[in-house]
Specification:
Blueprint lengths: L6 H9 L8 E2 L2 E2 L7 E5 L6 E6 L3 H17 L7 H17 L1 H12 L3 H22 L6 E3 L5 E9 L2 E6 L4 H14 L3 E5 L6 H13 L6 E3 L4 H10 L5 E5 L2 H13 L4 E5 L5 E4 L6 H13 L11 E5 L3 H14 L18 H16 L3 E4 L16 E4 L6 H4 L6 E7 L2 H8 L7 E5 L3 H10 L4 E5 L22 E2 L4 H6 L2 E9 L1
Parallel strand pairs: 7-8, 7-10, 8-9, 10-11, 12-13, 12-17, 13-16, 15-16, 17-18
Antiparallel strand pairs: 1-2, 3-4, 5-6, 6-20, 11-19, 14-15
Helix pairs in contact: 3-5, 3-7, 4-5, 5-6, 10-11
The structure holds nicotinamide-adenine-dinucleotide.
């Protein structure tokens, strides 16, 4: 039983892995054309974990050629949709079978607690695959009124070769959020995982082959953004780029599309999400637990993390005490220890970036409420303290820019007007949370909050909510472009044609 795997057993399993980080092209592992090696460090102690090739244009050309041939051959896109669905379900089954192996890779690569990797990341990835399989039947065209002399309709076709480029905070989940919709709609895919977390996507490609995905339909290219990512972005034979990562890289992809073949873009980028607490929220303990979880889960490395706490005057002091209470109980430790709640950040560069924001917060006059430094120094891992800055000014850099680490900024409001204005005061618009039982307040927020997703927490009664991946999300502002998730998200991977047939 999984629950009985001890820290020592996880470490022994990890020590026996021989990490294979070679590209997967046309159904098999191949050597990269590049001989330049990149070192991947273990987030928990800074030591070398494995090395891999930085990648080259020739790798991209080979993968795109394989994907194009598999698309043109028609063996995948003309296959009945129920067969493509069945293969995605089989892939989900295999992922469940190998959950422990995948969780071990996610925890080792990212530094996230093994408990989360096993009980959150893997089930989410399975859910995304199954949802996309089921949604495939719902992609439909339409018919249009005519004078009766013709039949006018629209049909949808796969786009062709899709290039997916993803980040590292949930490597497997981000990969299947591209693989599921791209494959079930009949496209071929070249996917580039983050250079910080390439292993699970490569393992998944092997499972996809076992599930029945034909050679060339799914290709995985590890390597750097500057080599593999950039070559994909400019490639003349990639029809669409589907991306999850920072806003800065998203903008580069837009420029690359314009400079190359006007490839279509689906961009899921950064966020600086507000968590708005109204004094009518009935249970302050529940709010504190929610604020804590929404901010510090996955060490704050979540695109939709509630990084800006906007709280009604009079509630703040008690709420912060309670949130700090949760922080004090956090067990920081090794990602492979099943008792660990809070692991290291993924890399030294990410740790230094987060520490840099903490210093900037202090320099700009924010009040450091707790944290603000490195943690578990003796490990040489990339740990930082969960940090809260109280009484920040909305114009401060720590409030405006995405930190992507465990740093919460706190602001107070008196009126609903003020709350909405503070919530909307960044360039992002990914997600937002509000704690209120007032219907008029909720209605006002639904109308005016700039966010692709809004969660309104009333009593906080336990509920699993909508299945992960089943709702369409369209980021607002500079959080991205296009729709991911749900049936509408599947449609992003198809192109529409209008057809008129005259008698
Ligand atoms: P990043 O933009 O640095 O990298 C993302 C991917 O882009 C990586 O695979 C990287 O190698 C590649 N890349 C980098 N430079 C490139 C270039 N010039 N051309 C092409 N590809 C390039 O982002 P990250 O640090 O890996 O991830 C963190 C970011 O991802 C945060 O901003 C976070 O909010 C965002 N994110 C968004 C969502 C969402 O659903 N909106 C989900 C998870 C993460």
């Amino acid at each position: 039983m999984t629950e009985q795997i001890t820290y020592a057993e996880w470490v022994a399993r990890r020590d026996s892995i021989s990490f294979d980080v070679r590209p997967f092209i046309n159904g098999r592992r191949v050597e990269s054309y590049s001989s330049q090696q990149v070192q991947k460090a273990d987030p928990s102690n800074g030591k070398a974990l494995y090395a891999f090739a930085e990648g080259a244009q020739d790798d991209v050309d080979a993968a795109v050629a394989a994907a194009r041939a598999a698309f043109d051959d028609g063996g995948w896109r003309y296959r009945p949709v129920f067969e493509r669905k069945a293969i995605l379900h089989r892939l989900a089954d295999l992922l469940e079978r190998d959950a422990e192996a995948f969780a071990l890779i996610e925890a080792s690569d990212v530094g996230k607690p093994i408990r989360d990797a096993l009980h959150v990341d893997i089930p989410l990835a399975v859910s995304v695959l199954r949802h996309n399989a089921e949604a495939a039947d719902h992609i439909i065209g339409g018919t249009y009124p005519t004078d009766g002399g013709s039949l006018a309709m629209s049909v949808r076709a796969p786009r062709g070769v899709v290039g997916a480029i993803v980040g590292w905070n949930f490597p497997l989940v981000l990969a299947v959020m591209k693989i599921g919709p791209a494959l079930v709609t009949g496209n071929s895919l070249v996917l580039k995982p983050s250079e910080l977390s390439s292993v699970s996507a490569l393992m998944l490609a092997e499972l996809a082959q076992e599930a029945g995905v034909p050679d060339g339909v799914l290709n995985i290219l590890p390597g750097l953004g500057a080599t593999i990512g950039n070559a994909m972005a400019h490639h003349p034979d990639i029809d669409m780029i589907s991306f999850t990562g920072s806003t800065a890289t998203g903008k580069r992809l837009m420029a690359a599309s314009a400079a190359s073949n006007m490839k279509r873009l689906l961009l899921e980028c950064g966020g600086k999400s507000p968590n708005i607490v109204f004094s009518d929220a009935p249970d302050i303990q529940l709010v504190a637990a929610g604020v804590f979880q929404k901010m510090f889960w996955n060490q704050g490395q979540v695109c939709s993390a509630g990084t800006r706490l906007i709280v009604e005057r009079g509630v703040k002091d008690h709420l912060l005490e309670l949130v700090q209470g949760h922080i004090k109980k956090l067990r920081k430790g090794h990602p492979l220890d099943p008792d660990t709640d809070f692991g290291p950040l993924i890399s030294e560069a990410q740790r230094d970036k987060v520490l840099g924001f903490m210093s900037l917060g202090r320099e700009q006059g924010a009040e450091l409420y707790c944290g603000g430094s490195k943690a578990l120094d003796e490990t040489d891992g990339f740990y930082v303290e969960p940090t809260i800055f109280a009484n920040v000014d909305p114009s401060m850099t720590i409030v405006q820019e995405e930190i992507f680490g465990p740093v919460l900024s706190v602001m107070e409001f008196e009126t609903l007007e003020e709350a909405v204005s503070l919530a909307n005061s960044t360039s992002y618009g990914l997600s937002a949370t509000a704690w209120t039982t007032s219907l008029p307040t909720a209605q006002r927020l639904i109308r005016d909050i700039k966010a692709g997703g809004l969660t309104v927490m009333g009593t906080g009664a336990p509920s699993a909510g909508a299945p992960f991946g089943s709702m369409p999300v369209e980021p607002h502002g500079q959080s991205g472009v296009g729709v991911e998730g749900g049936v509408e998200g599947l449609a992003s991977y198809t192109i529409s044609k209008t057809v008129e047939i005259f008698a």
